[in-house]
Amino acid sequence: MRVIFQCRPTLLRLPGGDKTQVLKTKEHLERFGIEVVLATEPKCIARPGDILHVFNPSLVKKSVVEEAKRRKIP
User: With 70 as the cut, is the pLDDT of residue 48 above it?
Assistant: First the structure.
């Protein structure tokens, strides 16, 4: 299984509580064999069967969520 974490564009450059949450969640999911991809660009890179999780949605472009809905990505 592959999970896409859609995050703010500055996630890896600037500190913040969401950065800690994203990285720790990624670390623990990977322990269970789940592939986690950090996406900081405003494009949907999920493929069928993937799961898209949006962190800090107020800083992620609305088009990402709309595209995921259109492609029926959970």
Answer: no
